[in-house]
Amino acid sequence: MNTDAGAHARTPAAAYAQAAEVAGRAPSIHNTQPWHWQVHSDRLDLLADTSRALPGTDPDERMLLVSCGAALHHAQVALRAQGHTVQVRPLPDPARPQLLATLTISGDEAVTADAVRLMQALQLRHTDRRPTVDTPVTAEQVDQLRQIAGEFGVHLHKLTADQVSELAVAVSRAEEAAATEPAVRAETAAWTGPDRPAGAGVPPEFIPDRRPETDVGEREFTARGALAVGGGHDKSSTYAVLFGESDDRGAWLRAGQALSAVWLQATVQGLALLPYSQVIEIDGSRAMMRRILSNLGYAYIVLRLGVADPDHPLPGHTPRLPFDTTTTVDPD
Fold first, then answer.
1. How many CB atoms lie within 10 A of CB 102?
2. Which residues span the domain enclosing 24?
3. Residue 25, CB half-sphere, CA atoms under 13 Å: how many?
C-alpha cells in the first residue's frame, strides 16, 4: 500500500486504509502496538486491542491509551498529508469502551508544507535510548513543543534542575518497584526477549549494551541488548513532562495525541526524544511526579529531549505488525 505523502487516495475507504497503515508506525509501550483499526466506507474506527495489553506493567491501561492516542494522531497526520480535513470523535459510544475514536473525512484541502514535513517526520521518528550529545535544546524549540501540546489540552512543563534531581529519584523508585514484581518482569522479557511476538516488541539492537551513565536512569530491561551506548551523558538534555488536569480515559487518549505531535515536531527540529513511562506505571512514582508538579495536574509521560550523535545512527526502525493483523477492512 502506497504511503507517500503526495499520494491522494481515490476513495474515502482507501484513504482510511492508508491512514491505518501509516498509523502502525506510532510509538507504543514495549512496541506492543495495542490498537486495531476498522476501515469503513464512511469512517475509520480506532479500537483498543487488549490482547496486546500489559496487565502487570499497565494495569489501568493508561499507557495503552497513550499508545493508541499516538496512533490516532499518526492517522490524522496521514489523512492531512493526503489532502483531507479530518474530524475526530473520541470515545464516541459509552456502550463500547474499546472504541476509542472515530475519524471522518470532512472535506479536502491543499496539502501544506507543514503536512508534508510531519509525514516525513513520522517516517523518521524513532526511540533512541543512548545519551545525547553536548548540544543544548533551545528555549525556542521548547516553546514550539509547548504550543503544540497545548493544541490537545495538554501542558508541557520543562523541569528545573532541582526537579530533574527529583525525577531521577522517582525513576529509581519505579525501577526498584518493577524489579520486585514478577508479572512486570515477565512482560518485559516477553516483549524484549528472543521469544517476543513477530513484528512487535523491542529487538536487542535497540536496547543498550550497558546501562548508560546518565543522571536520570533509563528503563532496566531483563537482559542487555546490542545497542552501543557510547560515551555521552545527559547533561545537555532537557527533561519535560506532559500533564493535564484530568485522569480519565479521554485525557490519556489526548495525552497520546500530544505525545505524537510533540515527538514529530521534535523530529522536525532535529531532536531525539526518549519517553519515560515507568514513572507513570508505578503508583508510588506517579504520586511523586504529581508532587513535582506541585499537585497542579496529573503527569502523563516524561520526555527527555536532546540531540543524538549524528555519527552513529540507529539500525533502522523497530518491527511492526502486518497491516492485516492491526486492521479490518469492512467489505462495504
1. 19
2. 12-125
3. 25
Question: Do 88 and 232 fall within a single domain?
Answer: no
Residue percentage of the chain with pLDDT more than 90: 86
Q: Which pLDDT score is estimated for 9? A: 46
β pairing state of 327-329 and 99-108: unpaired
Task: Tell me the pairing of strands 99-108 and 155-158.
Answer: unpaired
Tell me the CA distances in angstroms from 129 to 119, 210, 267, 304, one per residue in order. 23, 11, 15, 10
Any idea what the CATH number is for the domain that residue 45 is in? 3.40.109.10
Encoded amino acid at 24, one letter: G
Residue 215 CA to residue 168 CA, distance in Å, equals: 7
Residues 6 or more apart in contact with residue 181 via CB below 8 angstroms:
56
Closest CA to 256 of 110, 115, 61: 61
At 33, is the secondary structure helix, strand, or coil? coil
CA contacts within 13 A on the Cβ side of 49: 19
What single DSSP character describes residue 295? T
The answer, yes or no, to whether residue 329 has pLDDT greater than 90, is yes
**Phi, psi at residue 218, to the nearest 5°?**
-110, 175
